[in-house]
């Protein structure tokens, strides 16, 4: 058993937990494009945002439901025209 190992390693975030600058400008009702991985892109409307803009609920187009995205998830949310 490794009792003397680095016990704090599990506490470090895998990705930054700070939202991108454009996440801070999002507001409810904004139309956005969501990129979860290369080649997987969808669109929708911002349904809700946490006070610190680290998490955003997006109501996806075409009946794909509502999804919660966190800034550390590695997804991109970009404002979309129209």
Topology:
Blueprint: H1 21-25, E1 31-37, E2 40-49, E3 55-60, E4 66-70, E5 76-79
Antiparallel strand pairs: 1-2, 1-5, 2-3, 3-4
Question: What does this protein look like?
Answer:
With 82 residues, the chain is mainly beta. It contains one helix and five strands, in the order H-E-E-E-E-E. It has a five-stranded antiparallel beta sheet, with no helix packed on it. It is globular, with a radius of gyration of 16 Å. The relative contact order is 0.27. The model has no long low-confidence stretch (mean pLDDT 84).
Q: What is the succession of H and E elements?
A: HEEEEE
Tell me how many strands there are. 5
Tell me the helix content: under 10%
Low-confidence stretches: none
Biggest sheet record = 5 strands, antiparallel
Global geometry: globular
Biased composition (Low complexity): 8-20
Region (Disordered): 1-23
Concise summary:
The protein has 1 helix and 5 strands; from the N terminus they run αβββββ. It is mainly β. Strands 4-3-2-1-5 form a 5-stranded antiparallel beta sheet, with no helix packed on it.
């Amino acid at each position: 058993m490794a009792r003397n190992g680095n016990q704090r390693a599990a506490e470090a975030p895998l990705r930054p937990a700070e939202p991108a600058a454009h996440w801070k400008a999002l507001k409810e009702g904004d139309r956005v494009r969501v990129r979860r991985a290369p080649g997987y892109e969808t669109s929708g409307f911002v349904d809700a945002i946490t006070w610190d803009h680290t998490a955003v609920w997006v109501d996806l187009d075409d009946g794909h439901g509502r999804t919660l995205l966190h800034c550390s998830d590695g997804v991109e949310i970009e404002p979309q025209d129209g």
